[in-house]
Write a structure and sequence with these properties.
The structure holds 2 protein chains of 2 kinds. By secondary structure, chain A is mostly helical. Helix content of chain A is about 75%, strand content about 0%. In chain A, helix 4 packs antiparallel against helix 16, helix 7 packs antiparallel against helix 13 and helix 8 packs across helix 11. Chain B folds into 2 domains: about 60 residues, no CATH class; about 240 residues, Orthogonal Bundle (MetI-like fold). In chain B, strand 1 and strand 2 form a beta hairpin. The radius of gyration of chain B is 28 Å and the shape is globular. The two termini of chain B are about 30 Å apart. The chains are: A mainly alpha, B mainly alpha.
Chain lengths: ~300, ~325
Amino acid sequence: MTTTLTKPPADEAKRPRRPRSARAGGTLHAGPIAYVILALFTIGSLFPLVWTAIAASRDNQRLAQNPPPLWFGGGLFDKLEIAWNDANLGEAFINTTFVAGVSALTIVILSTIAGFAFAKLRFKGRNALMLIVIGTMMVPPQLSVIPLYMMVAKLDWSDQLQAVILPSLVSAFGVFFMRQYLLQALPDEIIEAARVDGASSWRVIWHVVFPAARPAMAVLGMLMFVQTWNDFLWPFLVLTQNGNPTVQVAVAGLGRGYTPDQSLIMAGALLGTLPLLVVFAIFGKQIVGGIMQGAVKG
Amino acid sequence: MTTGHDTAAASPAKEGGAAPARPSAGPPDDERRRARLSRRWQRDVRWSPYAFVSPFFLLFLAFGLFPLIYTGWASLHQVELTAPTDMHWVGFRNYTRIFDDDFFWNAAKNTLTIGIISTVPQLLMAMGLAHILNYKLRGSTFYRVAMLAPYATSIAAASLVFVLLFGRDYGMINWALNHVGIDNIDWQNDKWPSQIAVSSIVIWRWTGYNALIYLAAMQAIPQDLYESAALDGASRWQQFFHVTLPSLRPTILFTVVVSTIGASQLFGEPLLFDANKGASGGSQHQFQTLGLYLYEQGWVNQHLGRASAIAWTMFLILIVVGIVNYVISRRLRASS
């Protein structure tokens, strides 16, 4: 998109002749039915989130009445405060930010380096190794939890954050994603030029690959942050609500008990989701672009 | 790829020195230094790719492959949760025990039906959505981001909200259904309604994401395919079926594989859908999935060995599914 801006004006004259449909998708304009369907899906996507806030702003008695509340009551901030304190959410936020941050950063760096090797370097066994990377995506991490749990027990790591961080660092998707990006974003000439100047591979990575990969690294970082933030099963197994919880563990703990306070649960769920929704509101366009970019040739 | 080859081929040509710009004539001392540099340079070109890809493989070995294999080993032992390092060899007894357990087969069936209920409508809707998003739209970014909002919502938060929305007496969904003359449905305790409700959480979270993946693939289809189809007099629908769908085949296969794996691992949604019943997946185990059954055996009944046997059975099922998928896709490719 930006490249069209930097092109010389000679191209500018040609452009109107060719519709820019290729980038914008199909050439056909959407009819009113398409807009209606889209509106329905948008409402369907956003309504449960909005309703979480509505339910959190009402008290338990109001939630046990018909019809269900459709608009906000006055208790939202009180409920948020109670949920924050009850569910140990302050600590959970710090923990989760740390876990997701460390994990995303490490994955991004390791994936960029590996993705560069797969995209631009020639070495024996490259294609076979890449196939193995893709193959590992088919092995769900859940099937490995029992030995990991034994390891954690043996090392006495339960309730400790490294128990959550370390297994989350395996990301075949990251390697694949960076490889796809670097294949088209990093011209071979630049690498060769650096080579001719006598740069070592590490220098090439530091001075050529990282700068070229920065946009994709940012997107991958956000995707991985979201994924780790939302991870449920493994943190649920090794962390406890009162020990050293992540946000998901803390929020899940709100739902227990025989007479649960529903509006409090909603307040907790809202708090646990809010940071990511803010990230999506700000960087939504980039994240959408990143997901679509990772999908092509997938 | 070819240029990568050039880099490798270029290295012997520069054997004279790593910094070719410098004047070549020099004392023998300098030449030795340059030879040493060049050797180091060649070593670098040859071995550093392996260094660059090794972290991934080491991490996968430690936290993916080794645990997976060790699960198989543990499945042949009696291991208690309270003493996970104390293992007694029992052969295949864990397997015979779970195959004799009705709840295992119940969980397997539930996983299959919930998998179908959640995956098929999800992918069909995603395809339709992608088709619409592929039109020229005003505010297209807004729709895309809005549809991705559920993906940003965690399983825990989403499940807890849906429990309320699907409430029997005061839930929003029954309230809306009452308006069209449908009596209150017990979304938690009746078998099919509960499975539909659990599936709807999955559908809600993933439809937009899959739509974006399909949209990306649609945008990669060359425009002239449509133009020539239009010249041949194909209607919009015919274009969709004869141009769009065939071009999307690899992407569809990819999403089917990913969704199948996801469906086979379903855990958090059914666990939280009835938080008080927890691992049993409802009062009658009506929405207990294999993932939940594994958790129940391992962490509630404290039989890690048996849980390992469940994990390995799931793994073998996935391999079979993978092979079937592969065969089907090869057939499809051969027929086209």
